[in-house]
Sequence to fold (283 residues):
Amino acid sequence: MAIVAVGDIKGIRFGPFKLAVGERLLSREGVPVELGGRALDILVALVTSPNEIVSKKQLMDRVWPDALVEEGSLRFHMAGLRKALGDGQDGARYITTIAGRGYCFVAPTVAVLPDHRDSPLVEDVFPHANLPPRLARMVGRDVDVMKLGAQLTDSRLVTIVGPGGVGKTTVAIAAAHQAAEVFAGHVLFVDLGVVADPKLAATTIAALLGLPVQAEDATPDVMRFLRDKRLLLILDTCEHLVETVATIASSILDAAPQVHIIATSREALRIDSERIYRLDALG
Ligand SMILES: Nc1ncnc2c1ncn2[C@@H]1O[C@H](COP(=O)(O)OP(=O)(O)OP(=O)(O)O)[C@@H](O)[C@H]1O
Ligand SMILES: [Mg+2]
Fold:
């Protein structure tokens, strides 16, 4: 988010929501959410400064630039906004109150830039996007994340290789958050660590894409689905399925020219187009 000026942002995604900033439209899984103008102003002010405390005064100046209003008005519209978002329900957390200081938008956000004509903000929802939040206290990996971002533009398959527990998944998630806007939030995280049987690797991807799961090999269905999609796929924890994942990844690279893959593995996949990023332990 920090690398994008707010004026450049077409919209912002968070949880199941999309906020089309210019159109002043909030939608949830493609369905417009009814929200008053003041509540929307508050949301825009908070969501464009994620993880920052916005004071009550800043909010009031922004929402009522020409009028002096009581704090009660702010509280009233804040309550309406939280209700519309379902904040606090089923574990969803978007806005927290920082006592005596203001409010803070705490949910992970993904910016959508205007040049993503192939994935307009409101109409074309990718409901399967499931990137986990980045580790809030990640230390010492900024350079790795930056280098990975650069490699991902040059190469469509980057495998983060390193010993167990070194931070591969953590760095992959952080790099995917950084790249997410280029993929308009179309990011699929596939945890292969829970898949013991290689035959189920493709089925797992298919299920995450919402494809009907069949008894036979799901690879052709996955290829058909992906071939015209622009997507960032994270294949996490591949070492116990290296051969199978190598086959699936090569097929995807051949069949789906706009899909990029980040794999994490203790061993490389060893396919031609693979770019290996060796992750060393932090000093
Ligand atoms: N840069 C970091 N700063 C703080 N904590 C970190 C960092 N990197 C990893 N961790 C923590 O270390 C643990 C292991 O990290 P992670 O799961 O990313 O490693 P991994 O290489 O993917 O492991 P595995 O080989 O088991 O898949 C996690 O609890 C994670 O939160
Ligand atoms: Mg891992």
Summary: The pocket of adenosine-5'-triphosphate (ligand 1) is lined by residues 135, 137-141, 162, 164-170, 237, 264, 266 (CB under 6 Å). The radius of gyration is 21 Å. Helices lie at 37-47, 56-63, 71-85, 142-154, 168-179, 201-208, 219-226, 242-255.
